Amino acid sequence: MVTALIGLMGVLVGVFLDEYFRRRSRIEIYSKGVFERRLSVYEELYKKMESAFLIASDIIEKPNYTQEERP
User: Fold this and answer.
1) What is the C-alpha separation between 44 and 42, in angstroms, rounded?
2) 37: closest CA among 26, 47, 45, 48?
3) pLDDT at 57
4) What's the rounded Cα separation, in Å, for the pair 71 and 56?
5) Average pLDDT score, the chain
């Protein structure tokens, strides 16, 4: 009887540990994907801001542009 209880406890502990580690690995995989996506979006945003900054500085440094030449 004691052996059966020890076996049942071992199975239950194994099931709980398996579920814990499975969920933990899923969270890590999901987090990595989200981080990569955010990083790519921020890189695109930075490139757009840099190009806008270059255009704005050119307009500010050269005030002889006409109204039609200014974007």
Assistant:
1) 5
2) 45
3) 87
4) 9
5) 84
